[in-house]
């Protein structure tokens, strides 16, 4: 049985849905951003000190390590992880779910942009404007990787988890 990997843009609910889904399935839940922080310290500081390329390389190492764990898990990836061709290749052997989100939902959820380097790097534009640009760039990659896309209309955490569980049952 493979891992269930949640992908999608910032603010799509990967961490919260991942935790709920793991609880319902009796699997461990791992959030790659949390794992990164535990290993390397806060993402904004790492990003500032080492740059995006170093961050993406370390992120790819972490994703590879977590996807290779012996027990199938629910793994929530960072929003930008799909930009890595290495990570996209690793996802081919997993059950990948894209959590979609509307612009209004994202704006309400992204919170303090200071904790999200991609929303503040090199721009004075409002965070939601940067989010829209990033989403437009990455959306084709999310869709390319996804075995299932969970709509933004399924707004509750439990609705999203249930949609994923039902889709997995149909896949068997």
UniProtKB/TrEMBL annotation:
Q: Name the InterPro entries on file.
A: P-loop_NTPase (IPR027417), Shikimate/glucono_kinase (IPR031322), Shikimate_kinase/TSH1 (IPR000623), Shikimate_kinase_CS (IPR023000)
Q: How is the cofactor bound?
A: Binds 1 Mg(2+) ion per subunit.
What EC number(s) has UniProt assigned to this enzyme? Answer: 2.7.1.71
Q: What is its main location?
A: cytoplasm
Using the UniProt record, name the top-level EC class of this enzyme in a single word: transferase
Q: Which cofactor does it need?
A: Mg(2+)
A molecular function (GO) held by this record is: shikimate kinase activity
Superkingdom of the organism of origin: Bacteria
Keywords attached to this entry: Amino-acid biosynthesis, Aromatic amino acid biosynthesis, ATP-binding, Cytoplasm, Kinase, Magnesium, Metal-binding, Nucleotide-binding, Transferase
Q: Where does Mg(2+) bind?
A: 15
Residues that coordinate or bind substrate = 33, 56, 79, 138
The reaction(s) catalysed by this protein are: shikimate + ATP = 3-phosphoshikimate + ADP + H(+)
Output the SUPFAM superfamilies linked to this UniProt entry.
P-loop containing nucleoside triphosphate hydrolases
Q: In which pathway does it act?
A: Metabolic intermediate biosynthesis; chorismate biosynthesis; chorismate from D-erythrose 4-phosphate and phosphoenolpyruvate: step 5/7
List, alphabetically, the GO terms of the cellular component aspect.
cytosol
Q: Where is ATP bound in this sequence?
A: 11-16, 116
Q: Its Gene Ontology biological processes?
A: amino acid biosynthetic process; aromatic amino acid family biosynthetic process; chorismate biosynthetic process
Subcellular location(s) per record: Cytoplasm
**Job description of the protein:** Catalyzes the specific phosphorylation of the 3-hydroxyl group of shikimic acid using ATP as a cosubstrate.
Give the similarity note.
Belongs to the shikimate kinase family.
Q: How does it assemble?
A: Monomer.
Its protein name is: Shikimate kinase
Species name: Nesterenkonia salmonea
């Amino acid at each position: 049985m493979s891992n269930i990997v949640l992908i999608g843009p910032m603010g799509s609910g990967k961490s919260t849905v991942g935790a709920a889904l793991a609880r319902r399935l009796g699997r461990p839940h791992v959030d790659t951003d949390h794992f990164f922080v535990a290993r390397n310290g806060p993402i904004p500081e790492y990003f500032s000190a080492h740059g995006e390329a170093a961050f993406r390389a370390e992120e790819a190492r972490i994703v590879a390590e977590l996807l290779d764990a012996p027990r199938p898990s629910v793994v929530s990836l960072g929003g930008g992880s799909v930009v890595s061709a290495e990570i996209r290749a690793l996802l081919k052997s997993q059950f990948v779910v894209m959590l979609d989100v509307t612009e209004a939902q994202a704006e309400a959820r992204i919170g303090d942009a200071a904790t999200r380097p991609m929303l503040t790097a090199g721009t004075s534009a409002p965070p939601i404007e940067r989010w829209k640009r990033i989403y437009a760039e990455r959306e084709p990659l999310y869709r390319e990787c996804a075995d299932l896309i969970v709509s933004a209309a399924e707004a509750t955490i439990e609705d999203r988890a249930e949609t994923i569980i039902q889709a997995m049952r149909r896949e068997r």
